[in-house]
Amino acid sequence: MTTKFRQADWAEPLIFELSNKGRIGYQFPPLEPEINDSLDPENLVPEALQRREAPNLPELSEIQVLRHYMHLSQMNYGVNSGLIYPLGSCTMKYNPIINEVLASHPKVTGLHPMQDDETAQGILKLLYTLKGYFLEVTGMDDATLQPAAGAQGEWTGIMLIRQHHRDNGELEKRTEIIIPDSGHGTNPASAHMAGFKTVEIQSNDSGTVDLDALTAAAGPQTAGLMLTNPNTIGVFEDQITEISEIVHDAGGLMYYDGANLNAIMGWCRPGDMGFDVIHSNLHKTFSTPHGGGGPGSGPVGVKEFLADFLPVPDIVEDGGVYSLDWDKPKSIGKVHGFYGNVNVVLKAYSYMVTMGGEGLKESSELSVLNANYVSRKLKDLKGYELTYDPEKPRKHEAALSASPMLNDTGVSALYVSKKLLDYGLHAPTTYFPLIVPEALMIEPTESEPVESLDAFIEAMTEINELAYENPVELLSAPHNTAVTKLDEVKAAHPKTICLSWRRFCQIMSDE
Asked: Residue 122's closest CA among 301, 300, 320, 311?
């Protein structure tokens, strides 16, 4: 089928449209059946499985294939290729190349997870050492590196809380997990998957936990509280010791969502705030790549009284010899195959070693400085506002609201984000956290120099001015991207969504 590409809808040709009949970019060596008859494809593949006709593949030269996929890769946006990636609550810091060098070393990639412990001492030592660093940063007593992502880390942590209450004979009455209304969306999902009901409590005027609401919610039915500190709007919970006392006095446990650990790393530790369980996103806080569906790593740390419940196997050391310990009768069991996502863990190890303690501390300091620099420059523009006590310093992220702009001009936060694409900038997290109307969650991290921050601020300022002068231009954005403004309802409809060449051909023939 030959269909003319419509540039209005598709700015880049698909590889099938580059095809020219008879053009090839490969050459196989001639078969020599006289040497080995088994090389004949008809002998290698059973007749029932042999194709009756050649597959419908594009016909291209090698250089065409190379250029096509190289160009597609250049269209991708990432920390390594684009100016600032302000994805609030999903830290997207730069991943140093040294991390990739370590994780792709042949002595690492050549290992097999089934080989005997005595032949894998090097990797076991690295993982054990990383666990020690993790405990030092978080203030916990023991940990597991198995969980493959933050969400799985959350679920693992809540399962540990569940096992604790079961061990105490209180599981039947400890049925509720308390979650602030500013919590991450994965928090209630993880609690429900672990078999608990969730109780949402409202934030106070400062955007932090309302102690009266928490006191009213906590009781003999409370299994625990899920909380991140600083919280989702970037404000530090300065009454964290009182929060911990209320939950512990009710018999519940404190769970720390480590998504925002980048704000306090090296300065204070969740374990010292009263938290009993913590997960951290190695693929956020400690630089390893994040996004696109993975890979990730969400290790879980616990206080000593929960250590017996950690997943198996555990990596232990005895006299300089490392091994996997399966002897944990109270364990919740395995939550991931083998040792977890070792590739991601090794990148975090590399980051911690190269940064050192002072480097990690400076990283947090700069992430806080950058977030406050951006939010202070933008909060007084007439189209944006910093909700929940705007004079209070933010930590590593700040949630601006575009409500004034929407009320004055009809331009919502969605179109601020779309217009940023025309500047070659990735949009921030939009419409989260839910307690901030028309939210634009901005987290520049420590990776960006002041020139990048100024470019982002300038773009946001120009968008603000444009909203009041010519809102129609924003409502039709983006204009400079490979694919311009989409009909979002149509794009999401199962009859029009296009994820394959075959589906594209069907859509085109129907029209």
From this structure: 320
Compute the distance between CA of residue 225 and CA of residue 219 in angstroms, rounded to an integer. 12
- Let me know the angle formed at the C-alpha of 341 by 98 and 441, rounded to the nearest 5 degrees: 75
Give residue 173's identity as a one-letter amino acid code: K
User: Residue 294's pLDDT is what?
Assistant: 62
H or E element, residue 214: helix 211-217
Structure tokens at 336: 């991931």
d(CA 419, CA 476): 9
**394 CB-contact burial (10 Å; exposed 0-12 / middle 13-18 / buried 19+):** buried
pLDDT score of 117: 93
CA neighbor of 255 nearest in space, from 239, 273, 238: 273
Are 227 and 273 a contacting pair, CB within 8 Å? no
- Domain range for 147: 97-110+118-354
The two most distant CA atoms of the chain are separated, in Å, by 87
> Mind listing the pLDDT tens digit for each residue in 419-455?
999 998 989 999 999 999 999 999 999 988 999 999 9
Bond from prior residue into 433 cis (ω within 30 degrees of 0): yes
Q: Which amino acid is at 327?
A: D
Low-confidence ranges of the chain (pLDDT < 70): 1-12, 31-42, 84, 291-294, 494-499, 501-511
CATH of residue 261's domain is 3.40.640.10
Task: Give residue 222's pLDDT.
Answer: 98
Percent with pLDDT over 90 in the chain: 71
User: Do 274 and 122 meet the contact criterion of CB atoms below 8 Å apart?
Assistant: no
Name 201's bridge partners.
Answer: 180
Structural domain total, the chain: 1
Joined tokens for residue 72: 């597609």
pLDDT at 77: 80
Q: Is residue 319 part of a domain?
A: yes
- Residue 100 CB-half CA count within 13 A: 5
Rounded to whole angstroms, the Cα distance separating 269 from 257 reads 13
**Residue 3 confidence (pLDDT):** 34
Nearest to 240 by CA among 271, 197, 281, 285: 271
Give the tokens for residue 470: 């010519």
Please tell me whether residue 83 adopts helix, strand or coil conformation. Answer: strand
Residue 95 one-letter amino acid: N
In a domain, 277, yes or no: yes
DSSP-derived 3-state class of residue 124: helix
Question: Is residue 185 in some structural domain?
Answer: yes
Residue 282: phi and psi, rounded to 5, are -60, -30
Please give the pLDDT value at position 6: 36
Average pLDDT value for the chain = 90
Assess if residue 422 is contained within a domain. Answer: no
Q: Tell me how far apart the alpha carbons of residues 442 and 88 are, in angstroms, rounded to a whole number.
A: 5
Query: Do residues 452 and 82 lie in contact, with contact meaning Cβ atoms separated by under 8 Å?
Result: no
Handedness of CA 185, 191, 196, 200 (dihedral sign): negative
